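To the structural biology subgroup,

Please find below the input and predicted structure for Unplaced genomic scaffold K443scaffold_99, whole genome shotgun sequence, which we are adding to the shared reference set this quarter. The sequence is reproduced verbatim from the submission form. If anyone notices a discrepancy with their own records, reply to this email rather than editing the shared folder directly, so we keep one authoritative version.
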Amino acid sequence: MNVEPTTFSAEDYFATQTPPSTLHHDVEQVKNFVARQAKEGRKVALVTSGGTTVPLELNVVRFLDNFSAGTRGATSAEYFLKAGYAVIFMHRQFSLQPFSRHYSHSTNPFLDFLEIEKDGTQVDSTPRISVTPEKREDLLEVLSTYKAVHAAGTLHSLTYVTVNDYLWLLRALSQELAVLRRNAMFYLAAAVSDFFLPRQKMSEHKIQSGKGSLHIEMDQVPKILGSVVDEWTREGFVISFKLETDPALLIPKARAALERYGHQVVIGNDLHRRKHEVVFVSRKPLPSLPPGTHPEPTTAVTNVNGDVPTRDTLSDTFVEYWLRIDIPDSTVPASQVKEIEEDIVTELVKRHSAWIQQSVASEVSR
Ligand code: 9Z3
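Predicted structure (tokenized):
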């Protein structure tokens, strides 16, 4: 395995890596969903959610994973639906999903909500099952919304596991969503690996132990946000998330991502504070720009190690908006705890509408 590490462009990546076998089927379903939403005049949010894996072997026994339970994505999807958007929920298999997340097996196991009736009133010999009375109200609310969303056909879910699945799906879905023009929102909350092992460098079988330590050299995952914005869906409203553990890096990295990719918003979150504090980083309003375009970088913002600005000269270009909620008291029941995603989505829905109006106006005036 003495192959030099490579920096893949998006083009090289898709020319050399293999698509998931379900890609065609997934894309056909999304195509139909998008066509229906377009006909019914809905905006569509593509929500990506959960971590991506990086397999170390072709017959995969071991893999690296990125942190994310899928809470951000699943919760936000519910609020987008409530705001009247249709949602494509592209999530890591077995991560949290809208509605069922309220009854996650670890924090709120649904079996604890059920009781076997003992009063012998059942018609046949099968005991009846009922919902614990004090849980009924909450369950009814979640269940009613879930059923209404299903009846309206406004939620479409599909899964990925590896970072390779994620990249192929994101490319295909953003190409499909291009037909919606400005009515498509991209809410990229999935925790995506920065590094991967190209299949050409992977061991076919399980890596054997017994030879001492294991050295793996990974390649960098292509920065495909640039392709989303510049090629695949030039008119969509694109929001990416930036996760850091060093708070000092949050704003500089978020600004650098905006500078580099030219999309609309980066939402920065610190790992430990993410449930009650996020920061929206966006470009200060500029004189009207044609849709799908963004200003040329005004400052050199990269260093050899990645995308950290080398000097803080970007504060004139970008604006930060902090969103905070109170840290909930542990005695408040889970169903009554305020969720920061509610405020995130409210803010984004507002910005998306304003952005559509502005970009339509600037198109008309040209
Ligand atoms: C996030 O930052 C999400 O908010 C979390 C949500 C992963 C923290 P949970 O699902 O966690 O509620 O448990 N997502 C984006 C992380 C990411 O990979 N961002 C890339 C980066 O930081 C850019 S796409 O470089």
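Summary notes: Residues 68-72, 188-189, 191-192, 240-243, 269, 274 surround 9Z3 (CB under 6 Å). Residues 10-99+150-364 form a domain with the Rossmann fold fold (CATH 3.40.50.10300).

Regards,
Lab coordination
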